[in-house]
Amino acid sequence: MRLKLNTKIVLGFIIAVGVLLLTSAASWYCIQQLAYYTQRVEHTYQVLQGTANMRSNIRDAQSHIRSYLLLNDTAALTSFRRTLPEIHTNFELLRQLTLDNLNQQSRLDTLELATENEIAYLTTWTKRLPGTAAVRELILGDRDRQLQVRALLERVRQEEETLLLERRRRQDFFETTTPAAIVVSAVLAAIIVLWLFTKITREVRANEELQRELAYNNEQVAHRIRIIESLANKVVQGDYTVKISDQEQDSLGNLATALNHMTQTLDTSFTALENRNRELDQFAYVASHDLKAPLRGVVTVVKWIEDELSQELSPQMRQYLEMIKGRLNRLEDLINGLLAYARAGRTEQKLEEVSVGQLVQDITELVVPPTFRVETPTPLPTFVTDRLSLQQVFTNLMGNAAKYHHRPDGLLRISCRDLGECYEFRVQDDGPGIAPQFHQKVFLMFQTLRDRNSAESTGIGLSIVKRIVEEKKGTIHIESEEGKGAAFIFTWPK
User: Fold this and answer.
1) Residue (of 352, 413, 420, 350) closest to 380 by Cα position
2) What's the CA angle centered on 377, arms 376 and 378, to 5 degrees?
């Protein structure tokens, strides 16, 4: 029964749309025809007005010549010359208005010749001496030309009058038909809408019970989904011991079982990961302590040699000892760098309000030579974040910019841009720059673009920066070309 009723409603909509389309098309056609014939009637009036203007212009032209010959009034000649462009303008207007009428175009061709002949004839009288005899001669000589022009204009007018009668008849017809078509369309539309309303009302009543049942089921499903969402939120917060007690044998029940297995697996995996991290921390501390002890011993022995055998050491031997001390210092920096890299991003975060402007100023005093200039072209924000991590990032970037600069009086610019959920910081220098092919290499461990003997570097600093930024869910990249300075751009969550 439901399928049959739905079919009836669909068929009813199809019939309704069909009838409405037909009646709307008829109404549209009537409106279009009414508009067309209204425009054509107006067009005919424009042609009639154009013929009247032409007749008036020709008459005025002769009148101005008569005034000149009769009264010796040179102002009449000026008026005559002013009338000539009006004659040409009105004639071109008539030509454009009758482009769709070949008969009228043919008459206008003849009219054009007659008009030009009349203008040429009248123009010759502008050079004649004024007098009564000249006026009489002008009128007698121009009679035939005037009659020809008037006859041609009259034929044009009669043709347009005939067209006007036909177009007014069609206009009146569509003025009557259009409202009738609109009324019929409205009545049919009302009848069809009432019929469809009756059918749809029955369908709605039949579906109300089904909707109540669906609402109850949806409420139950929503409740179970909220339980699953609560579990997911707790997992995001790091609680992997939660479980869902849903025993229903459906898709949501199967999902709950799968989520329970997932949380159990995650709990086991993260427990093992925490154990590995503790072991890694223990290894880092032990390795750094055990490696530094013999390192300090070797440094002490070198110092003893320099102090106690200073008189016996040759210049070559002193050079060798300096090389040993340099290598020992680099080894100590490598050990400290490895320990810092292992700790990066895994230390306990201490959130506090940080003024980035003050932080940059403090770091400038620590790692930037006094001969350098540090500018902040944009205001630097104050927000709550992990101060130690942000300080480590700025320290490494500003320290590297100063260390690898090719001049002792470089310029650093620290700027910031608010991106909504995070800030984008930019540390830019005017140093030697970094070629594009090395933009990714500088973030790798133990990678440096300078000779190790010309600038002491472990190649770990930028690796630590990248790790800290990525631990904060930020990004970092380089904008630089060789010889044009370098800019390190990183994002930091608010």
Assistant:
1) 413
2) 90
Burial class (CB in 10 A: 0-12, 13-18, 19+), 316: exposed
Long-range contact list for 327-336, CB < 8 A, 24+ apart?
328/295, 328/298, 328/299, 328/302, 329/456, 330/452, 330/456, 330/458, 331/295, 332/292, 332/295, 333/456, 333/458, 334/458, 334/460, 335/287, 335/288, 335/291, 335/292, 335/295, 336/288
The CA distance from 21 to 19, in Å, is 5
Tell me the angle at which helices 356-367 and 387-403 cross, rounded to the nearest 10 degrees.
Answer: 40
The pTM (predicted TM-score) of the whole model is: 0.41
Length of the chain: 494
77-128 pLDDT, tens digit each: 888 889 889 889 988 888 888 888 888 888 888 888 988 888 888 888 888 8
The model's pLDDT over 180-237, given as tens digits with 9 standing for 90+, comes to 777 777 777 778 778 777 877 777 777 778 788 888 777 777 777 777 777 667 766 6
3-state secondary structure of 416: strand
Q: Which residues contact 351 (CB under 8 A, 6 or more apart)?
A: 384, 385, 386
